[in-house]
Amino acid sequence: MIEAKHVSKWFDGQQVLYDINATFDTGKTNLIIGQSGSGKTVFMKCLIGLMTPEEGEILYDGRKIRNMNTAQRRQIRTEIGMLFQGSALFDNETVLGNVMFPLKMFSPLSHKEQLERAYFCIRRVGLENADNKYPSEISGGMQKRVAIARAIALNPKYLFCDEPNSGLDPKTSILIDELLSDITHEYGMTTVINTHDMNSVLGIGEKIVFINRGHCDWIGDDKSIFRAKSESLNDFVFASKLFQEVKLVLEREAEAAQK
Amino acid sequence: MIISSINTFGKYCRFLTQVFRAPDKWNVFFKSLVAEIYKLGVDSIPLVIIISLFIGAVICIQMTLNIVSPLIPSYSTGLATREILLLEFSSSMMCLILAGKVGSNIASEIGTMRVTEQIDAMDIMGINSANFIVLPKIIGFTLFIPVLCVLSMFFGLLGGWFIAEFTSMLTVETYVYGIQSFFNEWYVWYGIIKTLFFAYIISSVAAFYGYYVKGGSLEVGKASTNAVVASSILILLADVILTKLLLQ
C-alpha cells in the first residue's frame, strides 16, 4: 500500500498541490484522474520520488521515503516499475534489450535465467515475434507493451503508469488497460495509473482519486463515480457528449425510481 | 550574468559529482565504454583524416608562397608546416572541429533521452543516470583522442608531402628534410596532453548541456548549439593556459 499524507507542493512560490491525502491499495488498479493541468502528474512524480513535496509524507508499506538514505531509496526503486506516457524505451536497444535492461542492472540471475525472464515478460504482453525489433520499428501500442514488459521484469511491488492510453486508439487502449489490470491482480502489485480517459475509469477503476486544481476532491471507485456529489468531478466526468447522454439516462432512471 | 555563470558552474560541479562515481555494473560499463570509443572516436577518424590532409596541404602551399626571401632556407616550408600542425592544428583546431561533431552529438543524444523520459526511466529504476550515460562518453573520448591527434599530425604532414610530390612548388627531399629538421619530440607530447584536456571539456560540457535540457526538440537543438559554443570557448581558454604551462 502507498500512502500520501498531507502532501503539498510549490513551484516558484506557486502552490500546485494542496494537502493531499490518499491511499493506494495493494492488488488493485488505483487511478488518479483529473483534467490536464490539475496537478495529477506532479502528484504522481511526488509519489514516485522524482519530486520531493515541500510538505507531507509518502509511505511505501509504512516506509517513509523522506527518511530514507540514498542506498535505501535505490533499493526501493528496484521495487518500482514505471510506464511512461511516451513509453521511454531506449532507442538504441531492441525490444529484448529494453526488457533485459533492468535485469542486467539489478538481477542476481545468470544471463540464461535473465533471458528466460525477459522472454517470459515479452510473451506475457503478447510480443513474441517482436523481440529483435527496435522501438522505432513497432507501433505505439506495441511500445506501451514493451514498456509494461520492462516495468514488470524485476517483479515490482509497485507499478506506476502515466497516461498509458495517450495516443492509442480505443481498442488498443482497452487492451492495455486489461493487461495492466490482469498483471496487477496476477502479481498482487500496487498499481497507480494516472489518466483522464473515462474508458479506463470505468473499465479498471477499482479505486479512483480525483484531483482538481491541486486538491483531492473525491475518492471512490468506478461504481460510485456517476453518483458522486462532487461538482468538479461531475464537470469532469460528464464533459463529453457521450457521458452527458449517460447522465440523462441516469437522471431518468432516478426519476422513474422515485415515481 | 556573473551570478548566472557562477550558478551554472556550481550546477556543472554537482553534475560531475554524480558522473564520477563507481559504475553500478562494471561489465555493463565496459561494454558502453567500447561502444562510445567506437561512436565518438573511431567514427571521427574519416573527418580527422580529410581535414588534416587538406589543411596540411594548404599550410604547405601558403608557406611555400610566403617564404620567398633568399635568406630563409627552402626547407623552412616543411619545418613550419610541421610546427603548425604539431603545436596548434592537430590539437586545438582539430578539437574545435570535433567540438562541433562530437559535442553536438553528445548533447543532442542525451537531450533527446531527457525529453523522451529515458533518463527519468533510469532514475526510477534506481540507476545513477548521469554516471551510466555520461561516464563512458567522457572516458571513451578522452582515451581515444590521442589516436585522433596523432592521426591528424600524420595526415597533415602527408597533405604537405602530396603538394611536394605532385606540384613543382618544392621538392619532396626539401619537404622531408624540413619536417625532420630541429624536431622536438616534446611538441608531440604537448599536442597530445592538450587534446586530453580538450576531450574532457568537449564531452563533459556537452553532456552537461544535454542532461539538463527542459522542454522539447527545440530545446535539444538549443542545448546542442550552446554546448558547442561553450566548449569551443573553454577549449580556447584552456589552450592559452596549457600553452603557458607546457611550453614556458
Structure, briefly:
Chain A is built from 9 helices and 10 strands.
Q: Any descriptors?
A:
heterodimer, A: 259 residues, alpha/beta, Rossmann fold, 6-stranded mixed beta sheet, 10 strands, B: 248 residues, mainly alpha, elongated
Molecular structure report:
The complex is a heterodimer of chains A (259) and B (248). With 259 residues, chain A is an alpha/beta fold. Chain A has one domain (2-226): Rossmann fold (3-Layer(aba) Sandwich). Chain A has helices spanning 40-48, 70-77, 95-106, 111-124, 140-152, 170-187, 198-204, 231-237, 241-258; strands at 2-11, 14-24, 29-33, 55-60, 63-64, 80-83, 158-162, 190-195, 207-212, 215-220. Chain A has a 6-stranded mixed beta sheet with strand order 6-7-8-3-9-10, with helices on both faces. In chain A, a hairpin with a 2-residue loop joins β9 (207-212) and β10. The longest helix of chain A is centred in the last third of the chain and has 18 residues, at 170-187. The model of chain A has no long low-confidence stretch (mean pLDDT 87). With 248 residues, chain B is mostly helical. Chain B has one domain (25-247). Chain B has 9 helices and no strands. In chain B, α6 packs across α7 and α6 crosses α8. The longest helix of chain B has 40 residues, at 76-115. Chain B is elongated, with a radius of gyration of 21 Å. The model of chain B has no long low-confidence stretch (mean pLDDT 93). Chains A and B meet through α2 and α3 of A and α5 of B.
